[in-house]
Structures are given as structure tokens and as C-alpha cells.
């Protein structure tokens, strides 16, 4: 009798930032029960953080085919700007290209690599090994498509912007004509064509076509129309999100799997327990965005003046310099109706009955988490993909109001009240409808559910082909 072939072995390789690691760990947890062996490449810093703050080892150690491969010597400084992300990117490229090749060539079988699509150097590292690379984009389909379309915007003269009218419509991102304005393009489009992030993001997005396939953390009812434009360039796309909901839908254990790189302050759940249903605005700008002291104050006045209850994540590095004393009216208003934490258990917070709305930077994970929880949004995008996500939140999905480029106290107060009071029923209804579609997509028979099965089957078939060679 022929010996049973070993299970397929997949290398999963995220960019070391909270949103990326989170999404790729969720994918890992979806693939492991299907019998795939997985090596997850992780920076030493993120490995320390996950070990300290998330129940990751308990969850993953039950799979004998799982292991972390910890990468030492990477940049460990803050990632709070495009420049610092570029430093990390360069460091990753320098330190991991050889390592990846070695891992593939040393290992008896590497069936495929699932690499963060932002790290196009993985395609070079793997070249000639015969191992296929799946490009996993942790951003939305609409942001990926806008990135992909940057050369078209340049060729048609829409980039760089001529003149200062940021509300002028953009016509060369197919499928977004009629509602996409200059201000909704990724933030780096606002600089000249020599901007390094613009050049890098544009070429990285096109390089996805060299990958075996693209995986997107989205679902067809949300972004199918945009994904169909990407499909004209790359026929093999797996839309398998929202991954966090997908994981919950497929696991017997329905509790939330935290992949936090920061210590969660769970006391906010006790505070939420004491608030009336749908009364609280949750405020968080994710793990990277920063505010100036002035912006912080404007948000704070806006929140207190709105008279709404609020739970606000103020990371210790959210504001670069924050040693000034808080004015007494803000201190009192916060004591009366607010609660501040350094880092929240976000998925639990969004699922709490006291939640009424989410003031968010529209990072893709936060956007999907809000959608699944059926929570309307007030959007204040910080950079990159967030500008386009927030436009979709308001103009396409009708899930909230996009406050981009302004956060003076009067606007914050007005828009918070608009979403939580004046147009509350309208937004709650559309958020509920979208949450239902999200859950259907990850339930048996749903599009994301079927696409994940197809991905697993395709990897297994690759494993068998490998054995036959
Ligand atoms: N998050 C969290 N607690 C917080 C703030 C954020 O757990 O207090 C999580 C959030 O649930 C999401 C991730 O951090 O999964 C942030 O990713 P996102 O893509 O939204 O934004 P980024 O941090 O990449 O800007």
C-alpha cells in the first residue's frame, strides 16, 4: 500500500502590523482544521506581544501541524506614519528574502506561500522554487482596485491633481465614477508623483498579477461589483471574508479570538454593561493613526458637547505630545458620560448591546468588524486605504457619515448627533441589513464559505501534485 502523503504545508507571512497580523492569523485558524500544516512567520516583537496579550498559544497549540517561525532582528520602533511603515518594509525585504528561500528549500514540502500582498519581494524570493504564492491583501477590494488604478489615473492626467478642488470627481477608477472624489483617493495621492509610497503602492498592486491568486478579506454582497473589475486582470480571486465572522461561523467555540498586540483593558465591558441599549459611541483610530494635540481637543469637545455617552481608545502613542492638563469642562463631561481606555477588546465592544455607533478611522479590520456587528459609523480616515473605505461607507453602503478632512468640534458634535439621533433609524436599518448579508456569506452555502472551501481544496490539490513530481 502506498504511504499516505503528508498534509500540505503552507507558509503564512504577514506584514508585522496589528491589522495585517490579525487578519492572517484568522485565516490560519480557518485553514488549520482542514488538515493543513502551517508555519506562520512572525516578528519577534509581535510574537512577544501575542504571547503576552492574546490567548493565541492556547488556541493554536491544539494543532500539531502549526508552528510559529520567529524572525529576529527586525525594526521594532513605532509604525505611526507612512515613513515608518516604509522603514519596516525595507527592513522586512532585506532580512526575510533569504530566510524565506531557505525555509522553502530546507523544508521537505512547502506546498505554497500565502504572503501579505504588500510584500511583493516575496514573489522574488520564491522565484524559481516552483512554489506558488497566494497574495493576501488585508485591505478592502475597493482600496486595492484604487491602488491598482493609479497608473491609469496618471496616464489620463487625473494624477497629480491640477488645481485645489478636492471635491472634483475622479473618472478613471472603473466602477467608482460618479461618487469618487479626489479627497477619497488614498492619502498619498495628494502629494506629487515622486511620493515614494505612491510609487511603491502602485507597483506592488500591479505585481499581485504575478502571484498564483489573490485572496481578499471581503464578501461579494459588499464588494462583488468592484471585485469583478479586478477579476478582469486576475481571474483567480478568493473573497473569503469577513474573516473574523467566518472563523466564528465555522468554529464550535463561538468566543472571540483575540489577536491583540496590545494589552486589552476589559474594564470597559463592565462600564458598557451599565449603559442603556444603543446609547454609546465607541471611538477608536486603530493601531497606527496619530492625532495632533489640537485634533485631540477638537474631538474631545465635539464628543462632550454632543452629550452622547462615549468609550474612547486613547493609545499611549495616539498623540505625539500630550502632557497638557485637560480643561475642567472636558474632565467633567468625560466623568459624566465617557470612559477612556488604552486599548479595548474591540470585537467584544462592538458586539455589546450598549453600542450605538462607531467613530472610526476605517482601517479595514475595524470597518468589517463594525459591519458584522451592525453598527453605523462616523468616519474619520487617517491615511492610505482608509480614505476610500470611508467614502464607500457613506456613498455606497450607506452605513454612516464620512467626516474626512475635518474634525472641528462643531462638525464632530453635529455628525455624531446626526448618526446617533437624527438619522439613527435609517443607519441602523442599513447596518442591520449589511450585517445579515455578511453572516450569510460566511454561513454554509454563502459565497465566502464556498470560496474558502475552494481555496482549501486548491491547496490540497497542489500538495498532491507536489508529491507526484
Ligand atoms: N483593535 C483592538 N482594540 C482597540 C483598537 C483596535 O482590538 O482598542 C483592533 C481592531 O479590532 C482591529 C485592529 O485592531 O482588528 C485594527 O486594525 P484596522 O485594520 O482597523 O486598523 P489599523 O490598526 O491597521 O490602522
Automatic annotation (TrEMBL):
EC primary class: transferase
UniProtKB keywords: Glycosyltransferase, Transferase
Top-level taxon of the source organism: Eukaryota
Any coiled-coil regions, as ranges: none
Catalytic activity, EC: 2.4.1.323
Record GO cellular component, one term: cytoplasm
InterPro entries: UDP_glucos_trans (IPR002213)
GO function terms (MF aspect): 7-deoxyloganetic acid glucosyltransferase activity; quercetin 3-O-glucosyltransferase activity; quercetin 7-O-glucosyltransferase activity
Family matches, as CDD domains: GT1_Gtf-like
This protein's record includes keyword Transferase: yes
Protein family according to the UniProt entry: Belongs to the UDP-glycosyltransferase family.
UniProt name for this protein: 7-deoxyloganetic acid glucosyltransferase
Organism the protein comes from: Helianthus annuus (Common sunflower)
